C-alpha cells in the first residue's frame, strides 16, 4: 500500500493499493468514530461493492446505504435535495459520517451533501474509477451541475480519508480506464515531467491494466494533486493549473448535455485544444504541443462530440474558471511548467474548438 499525505488543516491520507476495500470500514471507524455511517453509491457500483464495504464495518454502528442513478446527469440540484432528505430520514446527525463509494459523480455529490447537511459532517472518499482516484476524490472540491454548465454550484469540503483500492478497477470498462489515464497525462504535463515520460513509454502496459504500473502512476498523479492542493486549497492561484484541458473540456460536456463524453475524455480533447492554443499564442513550443497531442491520442480513441460551435462558446462563457465571461486557459511553457492566460483571441479559441468537435 502507498500512502500520500495531503498537508492541510486538518491533513488526511490517500491510501492506494490492492484489496483495501475489505478492511475499509474498520479503518474508517478507528479514524472517525461516527454515530452512523451513510454510504452513498450508484446503482451499478452498489451491486458490485456495497456488501463488501458494509461487511468491513464491525457492526457496532448503524450503516445506511443510499443508492442513486448512474451517470453525470445525476449530479444535479434536484438529486442533491433528494439525498439530503434521505440523510434526514436515515437519522443522520452531526456525529454521522458520509462514505462516498463510487466514481466522480458520487464523490462530488456526496461531498457536497456532507458539506451542507447540518452545516457540515465528515466525508470519506472511496473512489471506484481511475479518474476519481487520481482527481475527484482528492482535494475537497464538491459540486453539482446546472444546465448552464458543469460544477457551477459547489463547496470546498476536504475528506477525512481517501481509500483508492486498485482491485476495483478490474471491473471498469476500457473506456473508463482510458478516461482516467487522460487525467494522469494532465498531471504529468502540468507538474511532473517524469510521470509524463512514463505515460508516453508505458501506453500498452497501462491500457492492459497492469496493476503495479497503475499503482505507480496513480500514486504519482495523487502526489501532484496533493502538493498543489496543499499550497492552494481554495483555488486562488496555483491550484488553477489543475484545470489544464478543463476549460474547453467542461464546455464540451455542457454543450453535449453530459451525455456524449466521459469527463476524462472531455479533458483529453481539452488538452489537445489547449496545446493548439498555446502554440498559436506563442506560449507552447511546437515540440511540446506535439508530445501532448501524441500522448493523449495514444490512449484513445477519443469520441468526436460533433456539437455546434455556438453551443460550446455559450458554455465556455459561463464556465466558472473565467472572470466576467473571459475564459482563463492553462497553457504549457514546457512539460511540467504552465502559464495562465486570459487574453486568448476569440479566433484562436474557435480554431482550437473546431479541431476537436468535427
- Overall body shape: globular
Q: Classify the secondary structure makeup into a structural class.
A: alpha/beta
- Name of the CATH homologous superfamily of the largest domain: Dehydroquinate synthase-like - alpha domain
The largest β sheet comes out as: 7 strands, mixed
Count helical runs: 14
Task: Please write the CATH class name of the largest domain.
Answer: Mainly Alpha
Percent of residues in helices comes to 40-55%
- Mean pLDDT across all amino acids: 95
The count of DSSP E runs of length 2 or more, i.e. the number of strands, is 11
Brief summary of the model shown:
The protein has 358 residues and is of the alpha/beta class. Helices cover 47% and strands 18% of the residues. Helix 5 (130-136) runs parallel beside helix 6 and helix 6 packs across helix 9.
Description of the structure:
47% of the residues lie in helices and 18% in strands. By secondary structure, it is α/β, with parallel strands linked by helices. The protein folds into two domains: 169 residues, Rossmann fold (3-Layer(aba) Sandwich); 184 residues, Dehydroquinate synthase-like, alpha domain (Up-down Bundle). Strand 5, helix 4 and strand 6 form a beta-alpha-beta unit. Helix 6 packs across helix 9 and helix 11 runs antiparallel to helix 12.
For this entry, give a set of tags.
single chain, 358 residues, alpha/beta, Rossmann fold, Dehydroquinate synthase-like, alpha domain, 2 domains, seven-stranded mixed beta sheet, two-stranded antiparallel sheet, 14 helices
Amino acid at each position: 500500500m502507498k500512502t500520500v499525505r495531503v498537508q492541510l488543516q486538518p491533513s488526511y491520507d490517500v491510501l492506494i493499493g490492492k484489496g483495501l476495500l475489505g478492511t475499509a470500514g474498520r479503518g474508517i471507524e478507528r479514524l472517525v468514530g461516527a454515530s452512523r455511517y451513510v454510504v452513498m453509491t450508484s446503482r451499478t457500483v452498489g451491486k458490485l461493492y456495497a456488501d463488501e464495504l458494509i461487511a468491513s464495518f464491525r457492526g457496532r454502528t448503524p450503516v445506511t446505504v443510499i443508492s442513486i442513478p448512474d451517470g453525470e446527469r445525476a449530479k444535479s440540484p434536484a438529486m442533491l435535495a433528494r439525498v439530503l432528505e434521505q440523510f434526514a430520514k436515515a437519522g443522520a446527525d452531526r456525529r454521522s459520517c458520509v462514505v462516498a463509494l463510487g466514481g466522480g459523480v458520487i464523490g462530488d455529490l456526496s461531498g457536497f451533501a456532507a458539506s451542507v447537511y447540518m452545516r457540515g459532517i465528515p466525508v470519506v472518499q472511496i473512489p471506484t474509477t481511475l479518474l476519481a482516484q487520481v482527481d475527484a476524490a482528492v482535494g475537497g472540491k464538491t459540486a453539482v451541475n446546472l444546465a448552464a454548465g458543469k460544477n457551477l454550484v459547489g463547496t470546498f469540503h476536504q475528506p477525512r480519508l481517501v481509500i483508492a483500492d486498485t482491485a476495483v478497477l478490474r471491473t471498469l470498462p476500457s473506456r473508463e480506464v482510458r478516461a482516467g489515464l487522460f487525467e494522469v497525462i494532465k498531471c504529468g504535463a502540468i507538474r511532473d515531467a517524469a510521470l509524463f515520460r512514463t505515460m508516453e513509454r508505458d501506453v500498452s502496459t497501462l491500457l492492459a491494466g497492469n496493476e503495479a504500473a497503475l499503482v505507480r502512476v496513480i500514486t504519482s498523479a495523487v502526489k501532484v494533486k496533493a502538493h498543489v492542493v496543499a499550497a492552494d486549497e481554495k483555488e486562488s492561484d496555483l491550484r488553477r493549473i489543475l484545470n489544464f484541458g478543463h476549460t474547453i473540456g467542461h464546455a464540451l460536456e455542457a454543450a453535449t448535455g453530459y451525455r456524449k463524453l466521459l469527463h476524462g475524455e472531455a479533458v483529453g480533447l481539452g488538452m489537445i485544444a489547449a496545446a493548439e492554443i498555446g502554440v498559436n499564442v506563442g506560449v507552447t513550443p511546437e515540440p511540446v504541443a506535439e508530445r501532448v497531442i501524441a500522448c493523449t491520442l495514444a490512449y484513445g480513441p477519443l469520441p468526436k462530440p460533433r456539437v455546434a460551435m455556438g453551443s460550446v462558446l455559450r458554455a465556455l462563457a459561463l464556465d466558472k474558471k473565467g472572470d466576467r465571461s473571459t475564459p482563463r486557459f492553462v497553457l504549457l511553457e514546457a512539460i511540467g511548467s504552465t502559464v495562465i492566460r486570459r487574453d486568448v483571441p476569440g479566433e484562436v479559441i474557435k480554431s482550437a474548438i473546431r479541431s476537436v468537435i468535427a
